Structures are given as C-alpha cells and as structure tokens.
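[Primary structure, fold]
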Amino acid sequence: MLENFLNAWRVPDLRTKLLFTAAMLAVYRLGSHLPAPAVNPDAINVGGSSFLNLLNTFSGGGLSRLSIFALGIMPYITASIILQVMTPVFPSLQALQKEGELGQRRITQYTRYLTVALAAAQSLGYAYAFANNSSLLGATSLGNVLVDHSLRSYVLVVMTLTAGATLLMWIGELITQKGIGNGMSLLIFSSILTSAPAGINAWWNGSGFEKLSLPIVILAVVTGVVYVQEGIRKIPIQYAKRMVGRRMTSGGSTYLPLRVNMAGVIPVIFASAIMILPATVASLLPGTLGPKVAQWFQFTSWPYIIGESLLIFAFTFFYVAVVFNSLEQADNLKKYGGFIPGIRPGRPTAQYLESVLVRLTVAGSLFLATVAAAPTLFIKFGGFSTATARALGGTSVLIVVGVAIDTMRQIESQLSMRSYKGFLK
C-alpha cells in the first residue's frame, strides 16, 4: 500500500489528484468545527444519546457542535436510496435509466434536488430538538443552544445546515471527478476516523476483558472484510470461432468474475441512514410519544438490530439486482459468441448466472449483517463501552476497510494506465 502511494506521488497527474482529495477533506474537517450562526456550541451535549452518537459519528463530530456540516453526507445518501427504490416503480425513471449518460445525469439532478429538500427538513428537526432540549438529546439542559428562539435564529440555522449539506454533496462529487476514490465514501471514511481517538481512549480505560478481546475482534473483522471483499466466483466462459467481416476470429476461454460482496459497504450505509429516520422524525413529535419512539429505535435495542439486519439483507439484493443484469449479460455473451460450458446460451445462461449470484449475495449479505450487528452485541453482552464499539466496532471497521480497498484499487488502476513498459528489458 505504501509503495502504491509512493509511486502515485511520483506521477504529477496522480500527485495533483491526491493533493486535491486531501484539500477537499481538509475543507470538510474545517467546516465540521465551525458552528452555525445563532448557535451556542457550549450548550450542546450529545453524550447521553446513543442515537445522536451514531449521527455524530457519521457527521465527523459536526453534530456535537451543530456546525455547518452537522448533517454530514446522510441527506444525499438518503436521497440516493429513495431514487433507486423509486426507479423500478416509475416508468419515467426507468426510461431515463435506459438513456445512458444523459438519463443518468437527469437522475443525478433529481437526487440533488431531493437532497436539498431532505436537508432542509432534517435541519429544521435538529433546530427544534436542540433549541427545546428534547429528551432525544439524552442530557439535561446545558443552556440555550440557540442565542434566542426568534424566527430569525431558526431560519439562520436551517439555511446554514441546508447549505452545508449541499456544499458537502458538491465536494463529494468534485472528489469523485477530480480526485482519487469515491467522494461520498471518502467523506464517510474521514468522519469515522475522527471518532477513532475517542474509541481508543475508551478502550484503554475500559475493562480487562475489553482490552484483551477488542484487538482480536478488530483483527478478525478486518481479515473477514478483506477476504469477503476480495472473494470472487469465476464463471468459465468459452468463445467459439466466428466470422468478423472477412476474417475468422479464433475462439478462446476466459472467465466472468462474480464478487461475493458485489454491493460493498453501500447496503450498511443505506440501512444506517434508513434506521436513523424514525428517531429523527420522533424528535418532532409532541408530548411523550416522541421519546418513546426514539427509545424504541436506539441502536442498542433489538428492533434496531433486527431492522438494520433485514434492511442490509434487502439492500444487498436490491443493489446487486441494479448493478448486475443477468439477462443482459447472457445476451451480450450470446451476441459475441460466448457461452458457459454445459449451459445453453440465452435464457438458460441468465438463469444459471442468477442462481449463482443469489447464493453469493446471501453469503455476502449475511456477512454484512453480522458485522454491522457486532458492535451492539458487544455492548449488550460483552460489556464494551459505547464509544469503543461505535468507533472501533464492526460497522466502522467495515466501512473504513472497504473504502480503503476501493481507493487503493483505483490508485492501482491509475498507475497501471500510466505504466508503459518496453518490449526489451
């Protein structure tokens, strides 16, 4: 890994991309420390709420200050989920998806508009919850979070947080276009890493069992993530001889690689974003109903564990179905004279690919759900502290390792594109 970074640093183009990515991440970290106007950050305490601790992890600590980037990238992820779920339902979105790059650009534009709307609604909920010291915060009143409860203060906070989420969405897209790696994933990656020092400190001051078992757990999770992320099933492909113009092309054999976890860490991020919504909406409910709903969806509760696991399972299958069309793959193989030995071309090939993909996806989704539920189980039955489990637990390690692998793979592909070797050594 270090050798790849050193090689990338020697190439001027890649060095520019790396510096641009680092600069954008630095802007994100700076914005996470700047409180929104009309906010008293000293009056905010999210330490007593496991729900807000989860949100604070994904926002890189911005929520604990109600900073301009307090919403993090979650509104964009939620908007992406909604658009992907709606695409198979609405024929107009299906038509746009089939139009190629132009249609995808239009869907991306809709995602941006929906992100702004969701960010405005979420920022209004935060402003109301913090200003009124909602029991969702899990802490006693530490003073007035807002300087005053005037309409001007609410408008300032809502506009600032919405603009911050929109700016963060733009920064993520810029990283994807002009930097290295997926911008949205890298933003979440950097957010999770900011909670690592607090997690290490909590682990060091924890119980003896926690001190001894956590390194073993992290090593097992990292090994499992790398093993599953890099695991592939090779489907043998045979190409027959065929005429192209006046030339006869020779046949050959190759393989179609199917990943065990084709969806990566996206289902975990999607499921976390969805499970956050009920408690966010509950913070706006009057009376005692809101706190009861929020308590029901605390990440240490069984409804949250079961709901997140089921959503991870469903999102894994949904994402794989979107990115891999077995019928289209079978048609492409048939068009170019390719076939799987022992399987007839056309629909039988599509059915075979579908059956293999289902078995792989079941294994991948079960692994993701197990890793995501591990921190909560450590807290409930292992006596781990919340800070340690959230910062160094399964979900955090899964996202960090998955994003790191994808980023390194992109760096390697960029290096291979720029590596020219002569015929003579």
